[in-house]
Amino acid sequence: MEPARKIDEAETKPKRSRKRDREKTRQEILDIALEEFTENGFAAANTDVIAARAGITKRLIFYYFNSKEELFVAVLDAAYTKMRRAEEDLGLDGLLPEAAIRTLAAFTFDFDQNNPAFVRLVLIENLLHGRHVARSSKARAMTRPIIDQIRRVLARGVVEGVIRPGIDPVELHMTLSALCFFSVSNRHTFEPQFSYDMSSSEAKARRRAEIADLIWRYVRKE
């Protein structure tokens, strides 16, 4: 008589539970990989370290992501997804044009301030000449909703006579991103050179208001 086969624990779990476990494991890998990449850069980031910190084997990382390159692309996608989903919830279409522009400016500033790892990740990818984000069709597709929102706000403002015509929504988004990004990415070099506070809550609130005013003054119709 053959000995009874030992049943693996995974076989006893409902399929939905196993799916949740896989999703949880994948997310844990992404969270730890984000830390590893932003702490050490792409080249020096170590998948052995990521596996050890996640309490899994390196083989499992490659089961989910195939390669270190694909893992980095997935980390980028996850980081941008977090931002783009939050942008979609701003409800700019339901606001008056000035309120919509100021809300977008405040959100962008706050997001960068609250997610310095996102800023570092973008800096790292730019040092790599954007080779990973260029491979991500998802990253490109995710930009459309916010650009479409900005385009509608601008068009509505022109019709209402409060925003000047001819503003490119991508240019406006780029200008706003640059202003907010700088406040995080260049803080540690700007502060000591100019002896200027950029880190206190008062300084951040002042800069946040300044950026919102700058953007509104740029788009408004005189």
UniProtKB/TrEMBL annotation:
<feature type="region of interest" description="Disordered">
    <location>
        <begin position="1"/>
        <end position="24"/>
    </location>
</feature>
<dbReference type="InterPro" id="IPR050109">
    <property type="entry name" value="HTH-type_TetR-like_transc_reg"/>
</dbReference>
<dbReference type="GO" id="GO:0003677">
    <property type="term" value="F:DNA binding"/>
</dbReference>
<protein>
    <submittedName>
        <fullName>TetR family transcriptional regulator</fullName>
    </submittedName>
</protein>
<dbReference type="Pfam" id="PF00440">
    <property type="entry name" value="TetR_N"/>
</dbReference>
<dbReference type="InterPro" id="IPR036271">
    <property type="entry name" value="Tet_transcr_reg_TetR-rel_C_sf"/>
</dbReference>
<dbReference type="InterPro" id="IPR009057">
    <property type="entry name" value="Homeodomain-like_sf"/>
</dbReference>
<keyword id="KW-0238">DNA-binding</keyword>
<feature type="domain" description="HTH tetR-type">
    <location>
        <begin position="23"/>
        <end position="83"/>
    </location>
</feature>
<dbReference type="InterPro" id="IPR041474">
    <property type="entry name" value="NicS_C"/>
</dbReference>
<dbReference type="InterPro" id="IPR001647">
    <property type="entry name" value="HTH_TetR"/>
</dbReference>
<feature type="DNA-binding region" description="H-T-H motif">
    <location>
        <begin position="46"/>
        <end position="65"/>
    </location>
</feature>
<dbReference type="Pfam" id="PF17938">
    <property type="entry name" value="TetR_C_29"/>
</dbReference>
